[in-house]
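Practice problem: predict the structure.
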Amino acid sequence: MNDLTIYAAGEIHSAWRETLRDLLAEAGVDAEIVGPQEVHARSDDVGEDILGQQPDARYRDLMGARVNTLRTRVLMQRADLVVAYFGPKYKQWNTASDAGAALAQGLPLVLVRAEEHVHALKELDALASLTVETLEQAAQAVAYIFE
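Answer:
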């Protein structure tokens, strides 16, 4: 049985979740990491895969977003805490949305953001349980729970 279930909110284009898994394992934390669909094409296509072809790109995106939101809500509600990672690349509106959803659900939120994003994320920073600058710091904070 896992010590924790962590919803890992953030972009799906890099291997940061695997890095977090490795860092937690090194710290002795057995965590199940759940999150958004990491296969970009599947995430984009899922609405039409389930609901059929949509009349235009707007509805295609909307139906995909609805199915992805269902996944996020279910997995986040099962999580013990949320780690929201704002990495150095990619527009990260989904990360901000997921962080806000975690706060609305009363889940502990560890916000990971570089110093350059302090101003842009100041409201989330003020509401997060903890804000750190690196995944290493996030893993150390999670490990501290079990000391």
